[in-house]
Amino acid sequence: MRRVGSVQQKIPCVFLTEVKEQQSRKRDCQQFQVVATENVNPVALEADVDCALATEKLDGTCCYVTLYKGRAHLWARLDRKANKQAEKRFRKHQRSPHSGFTWNVEEDFKTVPETWIPAHRVKHHNSLPVPDEHGHIPGWVPVEKDNKQYCWHASVVDCDGRAALVLGPCAEDEDVLEVAAVQLADLLEQTLELIGTNVNGNPYGLGSKQQPVHCLVSHGSVPIRNPPPVDFRQLCSWFQESPESRVEGIVWHCTDGTLVKVHRHHLGLRWPDGETSLAERAVVVRVGEYNNSKDLFSFFSVLNGRRFSRLQDVKFAL
């Protein structure tokens, strides 16, 4: 598979969007919906989206592998957000966009750990990162084993911090998934999605409260088989009728590196809506030998070589 784009910024919708004053289907606290129009986004047209690689949009939390203290390391997504007063001013400006508005980055934004770094392509002014059109500064923090906030991120990295549990298509048969221990050095500068029991309501049905299961999936690694054309009506029909459409959405990886997406919620469709395509796929475990008490690597190691008819059937003996 050709090299795919790294997810560093918020990905625009493949269609132009509009805001409707209705309760969001995606976020309970959001009193508006961002919905797709039938017009293809010029950004997608300029990037020749019709020739792009269509891949499954995964429902988890974004991660990044880059250097930390001289070694390949897993980083968690942490967008720097405005404090309450600045957020209130910004939302007022959004309702009346002709009113003047200027960010004071040093005073308007919440503090972040000293190890925080801004995401790629974040603009800077006077050496300070500038917020995007949503009022956020996308960024990353290194995952530390003793930070409970990122305990599920840490669970997919081995005790030496050199390998991660990665789910992706088998090299021999792309219809079958495999869980493997992959060296972080081989994932440098890639972004991945952390999915599992305690992430975003676990739409893929992985593990259980007694035995949580989490893994990383490289962005762009799960292609959509027989994707529909980038046409509003045909995409709506595909999401409602195709047996392969039980996905959160589609991300198109264009040859120039541009990424565009469509989410079910953009089309007014539910997510999750029954069994998911990913959870229904067969999977084989190829993790190798690990004997570090009760960590996730050791549990997978016991299943090494086992094949399951469905991803959600992967269970550990307690």
Outline:
The protein is α+β, with helices and mostly antiparallel strands and 318 residues long. It has helices spanning 42-46, 84-95, 105-108, 151-154, 232-241, 296-302; strands spanning 15-20, 33-40, 53-57, 61-68, 71-77, 80-81, 117-118, 124-125, 128-129, 136-137, 139-142, 163-169, 177-183, 191-196, 214-218, 249-253, 259-263, 283-286, 307-308.
Percent in strands: 25-35%
> In whole angstroms, how far apart are the ends?
38 Å
Helical content class? 10-25%
Radius of gyration, Cα only, in angstroms?
A: 20 Å
Q: What letter string, H or E per element, gives the SSE order?
A: EEHEEEEHHEEEEEHEEEEHEEEHE
Shape: globular
Count of all domains? 3
Q: pLDDT below 50 for ≥5 consecutive residues: which ranges?
A: none
Compute the number of helices: 6
Mean pLDDT: 91
The major β-sheet equals: 6 strands, antiparallel
Structural class: alpha+beta
Number of strands: 19
Q: Strand order within the widest sheet? A: 7-11-5-4-14-15
InterPro entries: RLIG1
Catalytic activity: ATP + (ribonucleotide)n-3'-hydroxyl + 5'-phospho-(ribonucleotide)m = (ribonucleotide)n+m + AMP + diphosphate
Organism: Zoarces viviparus
Enzyme class: ligase
